[in-house]
Specification:
This protein is α+β, with helices and mostly antiparallel strands and 765 residues long. Helix 5 packs across helix 14 and helix 16 runs antiparallel to helix 17. The chain is globular and about 90 Å long.
Length: 765
């Protein structure tokens, strides 16, 4: 294969320039003027033939800057419009229905690419993505075209969310026409879901059939998703570009075998048009459909093109239509994987003989393309995922074929469809077992520190330019792509070093997670969590810890067994190296605590019942512990919270869990010497049932830290508690307003910084 990518892909430089313009536009105050000037210069120089390729790139850079500026202005306009009509309060919106409800533990969610918001008699279109969340049984979309919802609307960082309290506040409207591919998809989904209700294995098969053939992941069990994710094959689990490419390849091969390629080209074009409305407008589906459509058009027009050029032209077309995709994980994943496969795969495969080594070489190219993307967006690196994908692809291919057959049979022969679903369910069980075997025995999945977006974008841009402009640029491009991964491992080592004492109240929403590090030890007190979200620790807490270089924790403390304190800890014990678990024996009957205890025993982690044996010291820090004695008149779990007083670097920290008034009174009566502190973790997220006047008067903290979720339904922290703390002269920091709060203590001096700067530099205490 010729290594001159520039000749094979003339659209490469213009596409890179256009994407660069989109990326630079938000950071350039005069991007519009710059776009005009660059574009005018390109037009004036267009008459010079040797410079036309360069001029095309310059012109598209200007176009990217202009479109990016316009898009940024539209986003600001939409955010201002939402704020003026209904942001932060009860509002009514209309969302076009493109997919079904997505099950997310105890809630269901509906996503839309845009929505309309109503204000009296007018309805304004808002070009921002929206997610509607409901904690109730939702209405099935059926043939409806749109969903009306009333609830609490909040927009942040260019995306909106609405929480709906009851299904009574939802209404479906409109009807999809008979020719609509979305209607065909929903009809097949309803039939498959109904057929899967007969047995557990058929139900499992129905979930897989809906995901693989229809792009509907609503029926998938969260544990199944997790198994595929850990095994590195989650991208094969739902309808994506792979299915479209597989179908396109089959159609093309059949018609070429019949000696009639032209009808096959028209069928490919029809598939490219129908696929996105049928399976959804995800970036992967859009990329594959665009590439196939452009290929079919070039064949029909008699203008052959290369696979590389189709790749770049499809990216240019997608970004021109949906500029916001540039910052979306789905766009980066599908174009990163495809780019690695197309641009690096052939260069790797040329060094090997035999089908399997060459297939692995192509897979290595795809893995290099997605490695920096998954590490940035998901804090995850699956080493060897290309090998696992190649090994799993035949099994998933069989499941895909059976799924398509089951969807067709569901309309003509229900008995055959049910048998097919049973077979798919058994194959799925085999695939899940294989993924778990690979993940647990080989340990290929690793949580890593997230490299900065600017670094990832820069190295990808430079790598593409090297591949395009240099005939032998593949080694340099590979080295560049590896830079973000090297940064992740280097950053972990650098951030693991602590000078003095460092205390961080992590922003885990409505919960507690406090990381305490000294030069000699690391302690984690509670792990946050949300009821009904079993993967909170993996998705939220572990990335926070690894970003700070934490791979080993000497002591993990569970103050009490409520989900918002205990829920994230199992993932910590499962993934990181943990020395000891401190826990109260009073909490061991609670499910979360019992599970944590069993996990610690299996992992050979020392369990210390600290209410019976106070620990004294931990890594140079002096630790005092108090546990109130039952019975309690109310809130037994909260009042039974372990209370820790930690002294180091000449300062003291009082951690109070969710202690309420009865527990506070026991603390004041039994261990009054523990209460006086410089830094107070405010009990129970600032609830009115805690932080009594007596406790605050005795503690006299200089700093008060409140861990609470943004706009939480409990109203934490209450105005009453905040006023008590203010009267005591405490400076208050809150995770719901300040984000993660970091305290650096050195020789008695406390330096406070927060993730969100509300009040300017805090200075030292």
């Amino acid at each position: 294969m010729p290594d001159d990518l520039r000749a094979r892909a003339p659209a490469a430089l213009p596409t890179i320039a256009f994407a660069l313009g989109l990326a630079l536009a938000p950071a350039m105050p005069l991007a519009g003027a710059a776009a005009f000037g660059i574009g005018l210069s390109a037009l004036l120089a267009a008459a010079v033939p040797p410079l036309r390729s360069l001029i095309a790139g310059v012109a598209l850079l200007a176009a990217g800057l202009g479109l990016g500026t316009w898009t940024e202005g539209e986003t600001r306009r939409d955010l201002a419009l939402v704020e003026s009509i209904g942001e932060g309060r009860f509002a009514r919106i209309r969302v076009p229905l493109e997919r079904g409800w997505e099950v997310k533990h105890e809630s269901v969610r509906m996503r839309g690419r845009w929505f309309a918001i109503e204000d009296g008699t007018r309805r304004e279109r808002i070009a921002l993505p929206i997610m509607v969340t409901l904690w109730d049984r939702p209405p099935e979309p059926g043939r409806a075209r749109w969903l009306e919802a009333e609830g609490f609307l909040r927009c942040r960082q260019g995306a909106c969310r609405m929480s709906v309290k009851s299904a009574r506040l939802l209404r479906l409207g409109g009807e999809l026409p008979r020719w609509s591919p979305a209607r065909w998809n929903r009809a097949a989904f309803l039939r498959i879901a109904a057929l899967g209700s007969g047995s557990p294995m058929a139900s499992r098969g129905a979930a897989q059939a809906a995901a693989l053939a229809l792009g509907r992941g609503e029926l998938l069990d969260p544990e199944v998703r997790e198994a595929y994710r850990r095994g590195g094959t989650y991208h094969l689990l739902v309808f994506s570009g792979m299915q479209i490419a597989f179908a396109a390849g089959l159609v093309s091969a059949v018609f070429r075998r019949l000696g009639r390629p032209r009808p096959g080209d028209w069928i490919l074009l029809a598939m490219a048009i129908v696929a996105p409305p049928f399976a959804g407008h995800d970036p992967s589906v859009a990329r594959s459909a665009t590439m196939i459509g452009l290929y079919a058009i070039s064949r029909i027009a008699g203008r052959p093109t290369s696979l590389e050029n189709l790749f770049f032209v499809s990216g240019l077309a997608r970004l021109a239509l949906v500029p916001s995709d540039l910052s979306e994980p789905g766009f980066a994943l599908t174009w990163g994987a495809t780019g690695g496969l197309i641009l690096l795969g052939p260069r790797f495969a040329a060094r090997f003989r035999g089908n399997l080594p060459r297939a692995l070489a192509y897979g290595a190219g795809a893995e290099l393309g997605i490695g920096p993307v998954t590490s940035h967006f998901f804090h995850q690196l699956v080493i060897g995922s290309s090998v696992v994908t190649i090994l799993a692809a035949p099994l998933l291919g069989v499941m895909l074929g059976l799924s398509a057959a089951a969807c067709a049979a569901a309309f003509v022969q229900r008995g055959i469809a049910r048998l097919l679903l049973e077979a798919i369910g058994r194959l799925d069980a085999l695939a899940v077992a294989g993924n778990l075997l690979v993940a647990d025995r080989l340990g290929i999945a690793r949580i890593v520190a997230s490299p900065p977006a600017l670094l990832v974008a820069s190295v990808f841009t430079l790598a593409l330019l090297v591949l395009v402009l240099a005939r032998r640029g593949a080694p340099v491009a590979v080295a560049l792509v590896l830079v973000p991964l090297a940064w992740s491992f280097t950053a972990e080592r650098l951030r693991a070093r602590v000078d003095g004492l460092e205390i961080e109240m992590l922003d885990v929403g409505q919960g507690d997670a406090i990381l305490i590090r000294s030069e000699e030890s690391t302690m984690l007190v509670d792990g946050g969590g949300r009821r009904g979200e079993p993967f909170f620790g993996r998705d939220v807490l572990l990335p926070m810890l690894v970003d700070r270089g934490v791979r080993r924790i000497d002591v993990v403390v569970m103050t009490h067994a409520d989900p918002d304190h205990c829920g994230g800890l199992p993932a910590v014990l499962q993934t990181l190296r943990v020395g000891r678990l401190w826990i109260s024996s009073h909490h061991l009957r609670e499910p979360c605590a019992a599970g944590l205890f069993d996990l610690a025993v299996r992992r050979r982690i020392a369990v210390v019942p600290i209410d019976r044996r106070p620990p004294g010291e931990a890594g140079g820090l002096r630790v005092s512990v108090f546990a109130a004695e039952p019975p309690f008149r109310r809130s037994a779990a909260n009042n039974g919270s372990l209370v820790l007083r930690i002294e180091g670097e000449g300062r003291s920290l009082l951690l109070t869990g969710d202690l309420e008034r009865q527990g506070e009174f026991q603390l004041l009566e039994t261990a009054p010497g523990m209460v006086r502190c410089d830094i107070l973790k405010v009990p129970h997220h600032g609830s009115a049932s805690s932080s009594s006047e007596a406790l605050i008067r005795r503690a006299r903290p200089r700093l008060a830290l409140v861990s609470a979720g943004r706009n939480n339904r409990f109203g934490h922290p209450t105005r009453e508690v905040l006023e008590r703390l203010e009267r005591a002269g405490a400076r208050i920091y809150r995770t719901d307003l300040d984000g993660t709060i970091r305290l650096r203590v050195r020789a008695g001096t406390i330096r406070v910084t927060s993730e969100i700067d509300r009040t300017g530099p805090a200075g030292s205490l």
